[in-house]
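Appendix C: a fully annotated inverse folding record. The material below is reproduced so that readers can follow the format used throughout the book. The structure is listed first as C-alpha cells, followed by the designed sequence.
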C-alpha cells in the first residue's frame, strides 16, 4: 500500500517539477474591449470602425472565417496568452457554453480499466486452475496491462489538468501539466500496444505447429519490435531541446528542432492498423483447414476473430488524430484520440485474453448444467467435434535397399499369444501369467 501511495504522490507532484515560476492565468475580464492592445490591433484589421461596435461583435460570433482569421493573426503577432484571453472573451461575448466533458471521460476511463482488470484476472484464474500452462504470452499481456493501467491513471489525472475543456480557460502551469500527462499517455499507449501484439503473436507460436506459419509469426514479431523502437525514438526526438515537448506550446512559430510530428503519428497509426489486419487474417488461414464440425469451427474462428474489434478501434481513432494535429485547442481536441487510444488498449487486452478465458467459461457452464441452472446439452453434442473422413491408402516407397512387403505377406510376431486362441491342452497360471502344458494319462 505504501508503494502505491508513493507512486500516486510522485505522479501528482511530477508536473510541478517542470512548471515555471510566474505562470500567467486566464483573464478575469468580461468584455471584448478588455483584450490586450496587441489582440485589439489585430482584430481591428478585419472589421470596420468603430472596432467594438455591436455589428462587429455580432459578426465575430457568427462568421467562423472571420473568427479564425483574427485568431491566426493574433497567434502570429502576439504572445500566446493574449490569444487565449481574446478567445475566452469572445466565448463570453458570444454566450457560448463552457465545455466540460471530464465526467464523461472519467466514466469511459473506469470502464476501460475494469475491462482490462477483468480480462487479466480471468486469464490468471484459468492458469491457476491449470486449464493451460503459463507461457511468454501470459507474461507479456501482464506487462501490457501495467502500461494500460498507467494510461488510465494518467488519463484520470488529465481530466483535472484540462482534458475535455477549452485551453483558453486554463492557466499556463495547468497547460504545461496537461502536455506532460499527454506525453506519458502517448508512450504508455505505444508500449502497451506493442506488448499486446507480442502476446497474441507468441500465443500463435504456442498454438500452431506449421513451420512456415511459425516463421511468418517470427518475422511479424521482429517487425512489431523494430517499428515500436523507431516510433519511440522519433517521439523522444520530436522537439529539441527536450523541454519543448511540454513548454513548446508557448511559442509560435516553434523554435528549436522540430520533426514532422503528424508524419510520426500517422506512420505509427498506419503500421498499427496494417498489423491488426495481418494478425486477424493469420490464424484464420490455419483454422480453415481444421477437420472440425462446421459449428465447432465457427466457434473457434469467432474466438480468434474478435480481433476485428481491435481493427475497428484503430480506425475510429484516425479522424481524432487528424483533428488534434491541426488544432490550437489541444486540451479539448485531445479527448477524442486519448479516449480512443485507451479504448484500443483495453480492447486489445480483452482480445488477447479471449482464447484463454474459454476453458473457465466452459467449466462454469458445465457446473451450471449439473445444478440445472442451464439446460442440458442437446443430443447433437454427442456427434463429436471432428468431421468424418475416410482413411486414405498410404503409398509406400523404398527409402533404402530393403525389399517392400505386400500387405497380405506381413507376418505379426505374436510373442505374448494375444492374437491366437489358447489351446485346450494349455493352462494359464493366473498368478505369474505363464503357460504350461498338461498331459492326459492314457
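Designed amino acids, in order:
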Amino acid at each position: 500500500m505504501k508503494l502505491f501511495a508513493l507512486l500516486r504522490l510522485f505522479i501528482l507532484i511530477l508536473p510541478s517539477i517542470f512548471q515555471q515560476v510566474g505562470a500567467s492565468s486566464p483573464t478575469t475580464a468580461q468584455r471584448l474591449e478588455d483584450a490586450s492592445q496587441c489582440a485589439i490591433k489585430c482584430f481591428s484589421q478585419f472589421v470596420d470602425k468603430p472596432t467594438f461596435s455591436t455589428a462587429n461583435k455580432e459578426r465575430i460570433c457568427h462568421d467562423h472565417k472571420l473568427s479564425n482569421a483574427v485568431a491566426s493573426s493574433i497567434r502570429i503577432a502576439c504572445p500566446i496568452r493574449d490569444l487565449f484571453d481574446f478567445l475566452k472573451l469572445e466565448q463570453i461575448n458570444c454566450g457560448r457554453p463552457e465545455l466540460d466533458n471530464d465526467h464523461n471521460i472519467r466514466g469511459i476511463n473506469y470502464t476501460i480499466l475494469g475491462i482490462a482488470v477483468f480480462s487479466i484476472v480471468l486469464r490468471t484464474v484459468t492458469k491457476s486452475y491449470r486449464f493451460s500452462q503459463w507461457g511468454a504470452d501470459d507474461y507479456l499481456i501482464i506487462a501490457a496491462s501495467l502500461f494500460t493501467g498507467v494510461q488510465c491513471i494518467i488519463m484520470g489525472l488529465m481530466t483535472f489538468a484540462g482534458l475535455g475543456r477549452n485551453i483558453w480557460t486554463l492557466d499556463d502551469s495547468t497547460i504545461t501539466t496537461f502536455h506532460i500527462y499527454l506525453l506519458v499517455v502517448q508512450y504508455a499507449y505505444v508500449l502497451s500496444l506493442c506488448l499486446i501484439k507480442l502476446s497474441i503473436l507468441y500465443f500463435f507460436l504456442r498454438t500452431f505447429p506449421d513451420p512456415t506459419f511459425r516463421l511468418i509469426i517470427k518475422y511479424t514479431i521482429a517487425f512489431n519490435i523494430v517499428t515500436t523502437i523507431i516510433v519511440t525514438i522519433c517521439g523522444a526526438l520530436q522537439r529539441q531541446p527536450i523541454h519543448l515537448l511540454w513548454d513548446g506550446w508557448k511559442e509560435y512559430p516553434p523554435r528549436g528542432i522540430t520533426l514532422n510530428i503528424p508524419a510520426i503519428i500517422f506512420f505509427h497509426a498506419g503500421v498499427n492498423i496494417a498489423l491488426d489486419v495481418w494478425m486477424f487474417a493469420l490464424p484464420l488461414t490455419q483454422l480453415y483447414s481444421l477437420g472440425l464440425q462446421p459449428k465447432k469451427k465457427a466457434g473457434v474462428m469467432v474466438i480468434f476473430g474478435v480481433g476485428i474489434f481491435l481493427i475497428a478501434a484503430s480506425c475510429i481513432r484516425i479522424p481524432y488524430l487528424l483533428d488534434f494535429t491541426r488544432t490550437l485547442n489541444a486540451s479539448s481536441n485531445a479527448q477524442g484520440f486519448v479516449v480512443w487510444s485507451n479504448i484500443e488498449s483495453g480492447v486489445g487486452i480483452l482480445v488477447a485474453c479471449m482464447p484463454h478465458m474459454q476453458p473457465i467459461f466452459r467449466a462454469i457452464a458445465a457446473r451450471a448444467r449439473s445444478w440445472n441452472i442451464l439446460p442440458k446439452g442437446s443430443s447433437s453434442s454427442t456427434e463429436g467435434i471432428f468431421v468424418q473422413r475416410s482413411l486414405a491408402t498410404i503409398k509406400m516407397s523404398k527409402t533404402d535397399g530393403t525389399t517392400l512387403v505386400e500387405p497380405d505377406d506381413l507376418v505379426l510376431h505374436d510373442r505374448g499369444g494375444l492374437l491366437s486362441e489358447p489351446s485346450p491342452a494349455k493352462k494359464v497360471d493366473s498368478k505369474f501369467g505363464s503357460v504350461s502344458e498338461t498331459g492326459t494319462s492314457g
